[in-house]
Amino acid sequence: MENKKENELTLIPKSEKYIEYMLNVIMKIPRTEKFSIGTEYKQSMYKLIENVIYLTKIEKEERLIIINKIDAELNIQRILLRIMYKSAWIDKKKFDVAMDHIFEIGKIVGGLIKYYGKNNKK
Known about the structure:
mainly alpha, de novo design (two linked rop proteins), 5 helices
């Protein structure tokens, strides 16, 4: 139980680090894309961090819903990243670093989904 609280709190700095990295990446993509896909990506990241912070503030029974929202935002970001990479707006190294950040956050989210999914059954 203590471990799950720790994981929830670990999500905050990991998400912050990821967002800081991606904001720098987005600032360097072509101008026309920066204001279209870049804006979508930033909004998704802000929803992600908002849900991560909200997760620590709500009742246990409601956490699975928020964790699933976090997971959905990560999936959206994976798709947008692949589009940016395939369109050559970002290079392989930036793509790999961003995917590593998402993977790390995703592992924690996956563990939380398992934990709350198992413990939310009535």
